[in-house]
Amino acid sequence: MATQGHTLKAFDEDLDRLRALISQMGGLAEHAIGEAMRCLVQRDVDGAHAVIEADKKLDALEVETEQRVVQLIALRAPMAGDLRDVVAALKISGVVERIGDYAKNIAKRVALLEDAGKIEPVSLLPAMAKIATGMVHDVLNAFVNRDAQVAIEVCERDAQVDDFYDSIFRTLLTHMMENPHNIGQSAHLLFVAKNLERVGDHATNIAEMVYYAATGQHMGERVKGADPAAPR
Questions:
Q1: What is the pTM of this model?
Q2: Residue 118's pLDDT is what?
Q3: What's the number of CA atoms in the CB half-sphere (13 Å) around residue 120?
Q4: Is-contact 202 99, C-beta < 8 A?
């Protein structure tokens, strides 16, 4: 019995380390998006280059997470809910790494807009980024806490990000139609908005993983059962 207790404690410690790695990745991804947006608004090319370089740290953490997951499964042979947590950690690390790539992509646009004049739609992008990164922050906390309800709430907030994207798209389209010289810079900003919209999508993907890890049920089934008209 003592050996079993020791094994359970060791597994819990391994899982805690996995969750800590995911949290660290999430913090880096959030910071990267915030910095990329600051650099975009302020035309900080050097800062944008730092964001691009910092993405390597996220890549390394994803590799470390994968290694720890493989080791944990091999040594501890987790079952049922424990296995769901481990598999969720593996999948989430890949999604968070992708979110970091979106931040890097945004940062790459800064140099292309360095000499652009004042572009009004830029003012909408930081607010959109704040909602998207807030979703990422909250859903990763939900993973650490195994909080299925917060995962559901994160999914519901994705509509706000989509609304921002639609608004920015229309604004930029008008901007391009008013003056053909605006097409190039507007296209870059539309690319930025699309990347932020994808961050929101990935946060909802993580939320679905968190919900499944916590409950053993797929969120889509739960939503359909609660409200047949509810969007997925």
A1: 0.87
A2: 67
A3: 11
A4: yes
